[in-house]
Amino acid sequence: MTIINYHELNLYLQKRKRVIRRTRALVLVLVSISLSLIIASSIRYAPYDSGRVHVSHFTTFFKCWSNFGFCAPKSLEAKILNSTTRAKYAIVSSCVKGVGISDEMVQASVANKLMYCEDHKNVDCIINTEFRDLVGDFRFNVTYRQDQLSSKWYKFPLILENLDSYEWVIWLDCDTLILNRTKSIEDALKSSVDDQIFDGKDVIFTVDHNGVNLGAFVVRNSDWSKVFLNHLYDQRGSVTFAHKFNLTRNRRSAPLQEGWADQNALIIVQDSFYSLEQLTRHTLKSSKLSAMLNNFCLVDTRFIHHRVYCHSINCNKYFLCLAQSVTQTIRCEVPTTLKDACKQQKKYLNLHP
Q: Residue 280: helix, strand or coil by DSSP?
């Protein structure tokens, strides 16, 4: 005869139920984490699909600024994607109102770049025009709020999101203007960099007297460049933290200033992740490309002008005037600050041809 101890049996069953519940909960947590990582990864690399239409199909949704001769969007992303042919190049930019960037400048910069892409069917334009949630990344320290991060960090995820769709992506800061609408991107690149060197590089930097200038640079669609850009983007926490507590975090003992957030990230990545041989093999610092894509001066050979180190009211007026001069005959008075930057760049480029 079997004697059943119902008290012990009940304890055993309750213990078993608890184990089953905990196991189920653990499985659900692991599944949730896995799904979150998959979703985050797909968002990180996948290009946006919304709005991928030719500009003529959606100009009715835009506000037109007649001074700049074009209709520019006020949506999250302004895009001209030429649907009839697959574009080889993309101009990617971010124009968000902030320090030194007014609403009028955003409008002028966006309209200027969209005009160029409308004229050149092998170039697409992808321009961010609103604040983005940079905190929504599982790698980031969540104690930082969005408003604590410089909008300079936008460039790296924006390039990554669109890189797979093109052979080359040209990043242009908001305070750049394309002054020669007839010159092609391909001609500008090929005339600046020797074909053999150009074909072997993954990232081509413009330079000035302060070193690499990330206001304009060129990225090839390659595995190496994607890893490189991700390393740069991953530094946003380090640079923001260092800036907050006035720390120094690189071998060169340079202060990590938030105003130069992207440049600071580049210094950290170059010092910490790559050897000189790797950087020499995969990247190029080109003075000729600087004169073409990142020119501080107004010269006959100009293609893209960059209004650097100039954030006063007069500087903003100059930028708006220059944007109008692309489609109208207008004389614009160059601010003294920009004249000085031009002289410094000329001196540097003459010493480093």
A: helix
Confidence band (pLDDT; 50, 70, 90) for 138?
Answer: very low
> CB–CB of 155/171 below 8 Å?
yes
- CA 13 vs CA 3, 23, 88, 166, 318: distances in Å: 17, 15, 66, 61, 79
Domain of 299, in residue numbers: 55-351
Q: Say how far apart CA 180 and CA 38 lie, in whole Å.
A: 43
253 to each of 92, 208, 257, 268, how far by Cα in Å?
A: 32, 20, 12, 11
Instruction: Work out how many domains the chain is built from and give that number.
Output: 2
174 and 296 in contact (C-beta within 8 Å)? no
Q: Mean pLDDT throughout 315-343? A: 87
* Alpha carbons 42 and 34: distance in angstroms, whole number: 12
Looking at the structure, do residues 86 and 5 belong to the same domain, yes or no? no
Rounded Cα gap, residues 62 and 256, in angstroms: 39
Averaged confidence pLDDT in the chain: 73
Q: Please give the structure tokens belonging to residue 168.
A: 């080359």
Written as six digits, the tokens of 177 are: 């203007």
- The Cα 348–Cα 353 span in angstroms is 8
Same domain, yes or no, for 164 and 282? yes
Residue with tokens 């320090």: 99
**In DSSP terms, which residues pair with 207 in a beta bridge?**
212
Based on the domain organization, do 5 and 102 belong to the same domain? Answer: no
Instruction: Quote the CA–CA distance of 317 and 97 in Å, as a whole number.
Output: 15
**Integer angstrom CA distances of residue 94 from 24, 43, 281:** 45, 18, 29
Pairing of strands 77-80, 89-94: unpaired
Cα–Cα distances (Å) from 239 to 127, 133, 249, in that order, read 25, 17, 8
Helices (H) and strands (E) in the chain, counts: 12, 11
Whole-model pTM? 0.72
CB 102 within 8 A of CB 65: no
Mean pLDDT across 230-241:
78
Bridge pairing between strands 304-306 and 176-178? antiparallel
Place of tokens 């073409």: 292
